[in-house]
Design goal:
This protein is of the alpha/beta class. It has helices at about 5-35, 40-45, 60-70, 90-100, 120-130, 150-155, 175-195, 215-220, 235-240, 265-280, 285-310, 315-340, 345-365; strands at about 50-55, 75-85, 105-110, 135, 140-145, 165, 170, 210, 245-250, 255-260. It has two domains: about 5-30 and about 285-360, no CATH class; about 35-270, Alpha-Beta Complex (Spore Coat Polysaccharide Biosynthesis Protein SpsA, Chain A), CATH 3.90.550. The strands form two sheets. A seven-stranded mixed sheet has the order 3-2-1-4-8-6-9, sandwiched between helices. Strands 5-10-7 form a three-stranded mixed sheet. The protein is elongated and about 75 Å long. It starts with a helix and ends in a 7-residue tail after the last helix. The mean pLDDT is about 90.
Length: about 375
């Protein structure tokens, strides 16, 4: 490699490193080091809540998790279960639970409707059936981390708030795949919650999300993206959220915990769906996310090139070590807030794995048709 080429690569490495430091120090750092918990008045905490859950062949998960949602420590709330054309025993389970829990509302959809793709039609029916304006969403395979989940989510609402974003974690299991899934979930959450903290909300996750029913109708529901299989959560937030109507709540008690995929194939298809949906975000959001992803990838590529060219460059090595240390501190702080465990030492390796997998997922989205939601 010529000296001129090395100089260009070195200068590019400095620029990329600077971008990475901006993201970690300023954007992510504000979330984890200035995570001021929202405190609300007693009147707002008493606002009635409707929890909406769409289920399709989720008998076992509903039997396991639904009672914990129905037994939340909150004064006035209902749980709306939408049974989306299930072929298992979901119908019998919900009717049985209704005998014990009078705040359980049941909506049954016996056949698919082709006009809407995926969860959007059943979710719309659940929202329409909800009694209250304040809506809280999770999935059938999710469980709140505490009995104060509703209270925590509602505490983030202020006078002009219409949307509240929070963290949806995955359960801890043995194996590398589980660590990859959990790291990727932390990485994505750190990004969308940090951007929302800076008044640039661009997505939320349906595992743990809240917004007002009135906002749903103002946005005409999912009509602007009904032809897209997924996006009932992130595309709706991308369209409806702005710098004034969105708040976040990040705490151990406000998170939900979901069942993680056991097979790489299933997780791969899940990631394909999420990444393909992200292509429909606003241009400004795609630009910011593109800068983050590209700078992260280039940081590793340029680091390798420079270390091969001259393995004893003190400045380059110092920057690599500093960036790694900052990443570890930021994510560790996030993990402390959300009570995540057993990932810290593997973070650099997990980040490299995600960097290598993401282009493969994006390429597969170009070549292979997406699965429908089941």
């Amino acid at each position: 490699m010529s000296e001129f080429s090395l100089t260009i690569i070195t200068n590019l490495f400095y620029i990329i490193s600077g971008i990475q430091f901006i993201f970690y120090f300023i954007i992510f750092g504000r979330l984890v080091f200035f995570n001021n918990k929202n405190n609300n008045t007693n009147e707002s905490k008493k606002e009635a809540v409707s929890i909406v859950i769409v289920a399709r062949n989720e008998y076992l998960n509903l039997k396991r998790f639904l009672p914990e949602i129905l037994e939340q420590k909150y004064e006035i709330f209902e749980v709306v279960i939408v049974n989306h054309a299930s072929s298992d025993e979901t119908d019998f389970l919900i009717k049985e639970l209704q005998q014990k829990y009078h705040n359980l509302k049941y909506v049954e959809i016996k056949q698919d409707v082709n006009f809407f793709q995926g969860k959007k039609f059943p979710l719309s029916m659940g929202i329409k059936s909800a009694t209250n304006d304040l809506l809280l969403f999770t999935d059938a395979d999710c469980v709140p981390s505490s009995s104060d989940w509703i209270s925590e989510m509602v505490s983030a609402y202020k006078e002009k708030t219409e949307i509240v974003l929070s963290y949806g974690a995955y359960e801890t299991k043995k194996g590398l795949l589980n660590k990859i899934i959990r790291f990727d979930t932390i990485r994505v959450a750190l990004t969308y919650l940090s951007f929302a903290k800076w008044r640039i909300p661009y997505m939320g996750v349906g595992r743990n999300l809240s917004y007002r029913k009135e906002l749903f109708y103002e946005q005409k529901g999912f009509m602007s993206h009904y032809k897209i299989n997924s996006g009932d959560d992130d595309l709706f937030i991308n369209k409806a959220a702005n710098s004034k109507n969105c708040e976040i709540i990040l705490s151990e008690k406000s998170k939900t915990i979901s069942i993680a995929e056991n097979s790489f194939s299933n997780w791969f298809h899940q990631k394909r769906r999420h990444l393909s949906t992200g292509n429909n975000y606003k241009i400004s959001h795609l630009l910011l996310l593109g800068i983050l992803e590209l700078s992260t990838t280039l940081f590793y590529i340029l680091s390798i090139i420079l270390l091969i060219a001259n393995p004893i460059q003190v400045i380059i090595i110092s920057i690599i070590v500093l960036r790694t240390a900052i990443m570890l501190v930021i994510i560790k702080k996030f993990m402390i807030i959300t009570n995540e465990r057993k990932l810290l030492l593997l973070l650099p390796l997990l980040e490299i794995i995600i960097i290598l997998i993401t282009p493969i997922i994006n390429l597969s989205n170009l070549l292979i048709k997406q699965r429908r939601w089941k």
